[in-house]
Design a protein that fits this description.
Elements: H1 3-22, H2 40-46, H3 73-85, E1 90-93, H4 110-115, E2 123-127, E3 131-135, H5 140-146, E4 152-155, H6 164-171, E5 177-180, H7 187-197, E6 201-204, H8 209-213, E7 227-228, H9 231-234, H10 238-248, E8 256-259, H11 262-269, E9 271-272, E10 284-289, E11 293-297, H12 305-310, E12 315-317, H13 322-329, E13 336-339, H14 350-355, E14 361-364, H15 367-373, H16 377-404, H17 413-425, E15 430-433, E16 438-441, E17 466-470, E18 472-474, E19 477-478, E20 481-485, H18 492-509, E21 512-514, H19 523-531, E22 542-544, E23 553-558, E24 573-576, E25 579-582, E26 586-589, E27 592-599, E28 609-614, H20 632-655, H21 659-668, H22 684-707
Helix pairs in contact: 16-17, 16-20, 16-21, 18-19, 20-21
Length: about 700
């Protein structure tokens, strides 16, 4: 056999061996989760050691302790005492409440209490001699600051970082026990943990160990009553919604449904509440069948005469009786649909799932989720109106900052948040903020979901960038908008970075696409300008948004690598928010809400396409835009957008006598123009075009003379 063929054969055998080692080929090793299936031999060859506390920059000798770091030593001692009493070797603490929502009331911030991380996403795991927190890229910098050195920081998605079950298998013996509260973990997650931990036992422990030790300083539960969202805002009676839902259940293979998501209960019954900050929902569950319609809620929340009249025909039961009464309710059902985890919706807890007889369980996404995402005409127009009012409030605050900061008037991050609340409250039917304002100047802006505090509150100056991400709740809609600002003279590097982000933002916003296009697949448009420069950002590009509801609404998620992809439908609303974050320096994010609308063409495909309609109406930061980097299409989009902003927002500002804001708006929405022509009247952009034309002409002439 020739030497070359022998080498090829040996290489093939080596590759085949690697494939067998990794069970499903080299691709299987691209994510941390894929290490779980690597056999022991391959594991010894390739697997990296798990992160440790000593690797954290903020825990090295001589490191400066951040002012917002939380001392958790006493809390961990107390928790481990309880773990010993219940014979538990590891305890899992999630961010969730019993409804698996993204946002929870302060009373339910159990994970934040035990570890100190205040971000909305994260899971803490405590063993007898170690503690670790898993969180995503939005909170890496924040976690490094807030976690004390009792905690290992597990950066989800990064190479060498094991998932929760892999780490527990690494640090525990097979005869030890892991426990968690089954009311606070979704069914899908619980089942995955149970399977992946085997043979280690995973026990549902109804006594919540954090509740046992959190005896002082715990925020109280909300006592404000719920209220009705009337037909002029909801656009459809709850009776009609229930009829549509009941008609949908047989198509889903069920004759009954449990509803655990708070925003789904609120939307279905046209009721709202104040039980979760910034989210107009009340703590409630529902059970729906062809003959039953049962609401489980605190009696005091729905006892007003007006609410009782509104809920005529709805059986009402105490909130804390839901799980206990589910077996009896399900007796008359053939199959009960139990909501599964889906995009931002956590699905039913394992405790709820376990309460339904095994032969009657159907685990799949809630049909209410899809119904709610498609805004009706009244809801859609309400969203447009809410964003118009919100633009007036935001622009008014920005115009005041632009006027005062260069003069030396003190503005800090907390002041901006307070002023936004005040100015939004001046708008009709405002119900406060839709989330805690993210106001980050300089390095704080590089923390993706930064939350200003007394310890971290920075004064806003004139040398760096200021990232402002905020939103409002209104009876007629929910808003979410981010603009990045500069109150002095930006550097060339700041301008370039901002323009790259803007280019991606514009390319997604002006997209026309077939109606069958999946949401995750358009993400690359927003990242492409950054990719071209070797840059990226560690969060998704877009999320659905509710109508006087959740700020993150399923099913829309525009994110590369998303495990679930969905198509767009008319009157879906979602965000377009690329960014760039330079740790220790600045952050940039540009976020606008878009509406999915049909578009028609006089072609053989007249009704095949959707496009996006601008909903957010706030100018971009003019001094940060390098127009020469933009394409003609991008410039045209911005200029058309500015015409719309002037027409809509300018008119509303005039109506509300907001002169300062109006003058600022006009100055910011002058048309974008390329620099004055150079080189005998030929602009740089046009010169490039003409070079291309002459090149093509020369090639054509060469071909003609050469071959003809």
């Amino acid at each position: 056999m020739p030497e070359s063929r022998r080498l090829v054969l040996l290489a093939g055998v080596f590759l085949l061996t690697l494939v067998n080692l990794t069970q499903s080929g080299p691709i299987a090793l691209r994510t941390p989760e894929d290490w779980d299936n690597v056999p022991s031999f391959g594991d010894r060859l390739l697997k990296k050691r798990s992160p440790t506390v000593s690797e954290r920059p903020g825990c090295k000798e001589g490191a400066t302790i951040p002012p917002n770091r939380v001392n958790t030593t006493k809390r961990l001692i107390d928790l481990r005492i309880q773990m010993d009493l219940y014979n538990v070797s590891a305890y899992i603490v999630t961010s969730d409440n019993a409804h698996q929502g993204e946002e929870v009331a302060p009373h339910d911030h159990r994970r934040e209490f035990i570890c100190g991380l205040s971000g909305s996403s994260g899971t803490a795991v405590i063993t007898k001699d170690a503690a670790a927190v898993w969180t995503d890229g939005r909170y890496f910098l924040q976690a490094e600051n807030e976690l004390d050195c009792n905690w290992i920081l597990m950066k989800d998605g990064e190479a060498g970082v094991p998932n929760i079950t892999a780490w527990l298998r690494e640090v525990l013996k097979t005869d030890e026990k892991v426990a968690a509260d089954p009311t606070l973990i979704g069914t899908t997650t619980w089942q995955r943990y149970d399977k992946d931990l085997a043979p280690i036992e995973f026990e549902p422990l109804l006594t919540n160990l954090i509740d046992v030790i959190w005896t002082t300083g715990r925020p109280p539960v909300n006592t404000e009553p719920g209220f009705i969202l009337h037909l002029n805002y909801s656009g459809e009676s709850w009776q009609d919604k229930v009829d549509r839902l009941r008609a949908e259940l047989p198509k889903q293979g069920a004759d009954a449904l449990v509803i655990t998501a708070l925003d789904e209960v609120a939307w279905l019954l046209n009721i709202r509440g104040s039980d979760v900050p910034n989210h107009p929902v009340l703590l409630a569950y529902m059970y729906v069948s062809s003959t039953q319609l049962v609401l489980f809620a605190e009696t005091s929340k729905i006892s007003s005469p007006e609410m009782q009249t509104h809920l005529t025909g709805v059986t009402q039961r105490p909130y804390d009786r839901f799980v206990a009464e589910l077996p009896d309710l399900a007796q008359s059902a053939s199959m009960v649909l139990i909501p599964s985890q889906f995009v931002y919706t956590g699905g039913a807890s394992y405790a709820v799932y376990n309460a339904i007889p095994e032969t009657k369980r159907l685990l799949k996404p809630s049909p209410v989720l899809m119904m709610k995402a498609k805004k009706n005409t009244v809801e859609a127009e309400g969203m447009m109106n809410a964003h118009l009012k919100d633009a007036v409030a935001l622009c008014d605050v920005i115009s005041l900052m632009v006027e005062e900061i260069p003069k030396g008037v003190r503005w800090d991050e907390l002041k901006v948040s307070a002023e936004l609340l005040k100015y939004r409250a001046q708008q009709e039917v405002n119900k406060g903020a839709s989330f805690n304002t993210i106001a980050g100047y300089g390095p704080n802006g590089a923390i993706i979901h930064y939350s200003a505090s007394e310890e971290t509150n920075a004064v806003i100056g004139t040398t760096s960038l200021f990232l402002l991400d905020s939103g409002g709740q209104y009876f007629d809609g929910t808003t979410d908008v981010t603009r990045t600002l500069h109150f002095g003279t930006p550097t060339a590097a700041q301008i370039k970075a901002y323009t790259l982000v803007l280019m991606g933002h514009l390319d997604l916003a002006r997209l026309v696409f077939p109606k069958t296009t999946r949401d995750a697949r358009v993400d690359v448009l927003a990242r492409a300008p950054l990719f071209d420069q070797g840059l990226d950002y560690l969060h998704g590009t877009g999320h659905g948004i509710g109508h006087f509801g959740s700020i993150h609404e399923s099913p829309t998620r525009v994110a590369l690598g998303s495990s679930v992809e969905n198509t767009f439908f008319e009157n879906y609303f979602f965000s377009d928010e690329p960014g760039y974050y330079k740790a220790g320096d600045f952050g940039i994010r540009i976020e606008s809400i878009l509406r999915v609308i049909p578009t028609t063409f006089s072609t053989e495909f007249p009704d095949r396409f959707f496009r996006f309609q601008a909903v957010t109406l706030v100018p971009f930061e003019r001094k940060l835009i390098d127009v020469t980097m933009l394409s003609d299409g991008q410039i045209d989009y911005v200029n058309d957008y500015y015409v719309l902003v002037r027409q809509k927002v300018g008119a509303e500002m005039t109506k509300q006598n907001r002169t300062r804001a109006y003058n600022w708006l006009i100055s910011q929405t002058e048309p974008l123009m390329l620099p004055e022509p150079v080189n005998k009247g030929v602009s740089i952009a046009n010169k490039q075009v003409w070079v291309g034309i002459w090149t093509q002409l020369f090639i054509s002439m060469f071909v003609v003379f050469k071959f003809y």
